[in-house]
Amino acid sequence: MPPRQQPRRIARELALLSLSQIKNGTAKLEQEDINSLLLAAIRTLTGEVQDILETASAEVNRSNERLLSSETRATSLESAKAMLQESIVLTQTAINRVAIAVELPEILQLASQYEVRQHTLELVGTVHRRRQEIDQQLEEAMVDWKLNRLPKIDQDILRLALAEILYLEIPQKVAINEAVELAKRYSDDAGYRFLNGVLRRVSNQLSHPSSHSSKEDSGLKPSES
User: Rounded to an integer, what distance in angstroms lies between the CA atom of residue 17 and that of residue 77?
Assistant: First the structure.
């Protein structure tokens, strides 16, 4: 049985999906706009359930085809083993997708709760109002890189973490760990490792504000696409 989702974690995900819909350069964001963004984020998750299940179903079908081929079309033991292994991989992938889909109904249910919605709106509003200060802090932590060169989803994950640390009194360790979890879901392996490095550097700068006059290499850089 999958673990229960925490309201604040769900709020972070909804906030991330909401921020992804805000165009760069949007100067003013009314409360009605934020509510509309939240509704769109919930609809995005609803559509994701269907997409994940459809993909998992297709993978199971391909798995069955490879399994049948291993029995009827394989010309050697080696080819039969290869087909069987491919079938197993496809089945495992489908199972993993279904596991993700199983979590989403709970997320959608909790998204309607007052606590989740309020925290989501607070996150989106804080990031938007404090965008300049947050981005400046992030730029100071970047090494041979610029924030605007990252994919927008990665930029927004970083901004959410900084908003929580700087303005919403969330402990640094908690905010960083939650940002990494978001990155694992919405970014790639190189992306979440890079974001983790940036946030760790920000944490060091906040803890020792006089010791970061010169930038140190975080050890990780995102690959350019």
Answer: 48
Sign for the CA dihedral angle at 162, 164, 166, 171 comes to: negative
Q: What is the pLDDT of residues 191-225, one digit of tens each?
A: 889 999 999 999 999 888 765 544 444 444 554 44
Residue pair 126/159 in contact (Cβ under 8 Å)? The answer is no
- Measured CA to CA in angstroms, residue 205 lies from 70, 134, 135, 139, 149 at distances of 57, 13, 14, 12, 22
Which DSSP symbol is given to 2?
P
CA-CA distance, 117 to 15, in Å (whole number)? 9
Of 21, 18, 32, 7, which is closest to residue 108 (Cα–Cα)?
7
The one-letter amino acid at 42 = I
| pLDDT, tens digit, 9 for 90 and up, residues 162-197 | 999 999 999 999 999 999 999 988 888 888 899 999
- For residue 205, give the H/E element and its range: helix 189-207
Please name the helix (run of DSSP H) or strand (run of DSSP E) that holds residue 184, with its range, or none.
helix 172-186
Apex CA 206: angle with CA 208 and CA 8, to 5°? 145
Cα 91 to Cα 50, 68, 139, 144: the distances in Å are 18, 14, 43, 42
